User: Fold this.
Amino acid sequence: MAQHLFIITGASRGMGLALAQALLSAEHIVLGISRQRNETLQAMATAQSTPLTQWTLDLADSEAAAQALRLWLGGLNPKDIASATLINNAGVIPPIAPLSGSQTSEVARALRVGLEAPMLLTHAFLSATLAWVNAGWRGPRKVLNISSGLGRRPMASQAPYCAAKAGMDHFSRCVALDEAQQPHGARIVSLAPGVIDTDMQVQLRGADAAQFPDRSRFVSLHTEGVLSTSEDAAARIVGYLNSPDFGKAVVDDLRT
Assistant:
């Protein structure tokens, strides 16, 4: 029986891990791409006898990651695939500081992981699965980019992360226009999932207030208990993915 394919970046922890756990199923094939392998996730898949593959790749080397994905997809038999979904979830917040006080290497890494890698992985995914379509495959193809409200409003000391997420939103708009011109084109969404209690929130709360004027806001989000858990957000994202309306709004917010 054909299975649904899900490719998730940053799947070893936080939001990506919760998504991988939520998608583990006998009807699904899950490929997680992260710098580290998560043994708890692997044990869960083994216990459930569900298909899981984990790649340990640094998405800062985005060309190598995209090439690996293209070759892997090219080796699959599309007759075994009911649908194919790429979830670009991985992101990096460099040390929190004004751009003038940031290390160029940290800024470059944030942009490579947060914007360049999603673009190149999306290219690899779309081109490889287009070959399936050209051979007669008619399963749905989806790209879900995990964006952020910070891509839609500026914040001091967050220039690299905000720029990467804003770029993710806009490249999604452009790709959606491309795919709308194609027979059996893919659907793409850049989705802000809301405020989630992840390591990124810990990093923001722990920043130097002198370097990060919005630190108190993130401290308040935590103390007031308004942060979503990764598991709750993952469940809502999976529901969003499965909605027949997926792709109607290319740039969307899970809170609305």
User: Anything to note?
Assistant: The first strand starts at residue 3 and ends at 9. The mean pLDDT is 94. Residues 3-194+230-253 form a domain with the Rossmann fold fold (CATH 3.40.50.720). The CA atoms of residues 189 and 250 lie 4 Å apart.
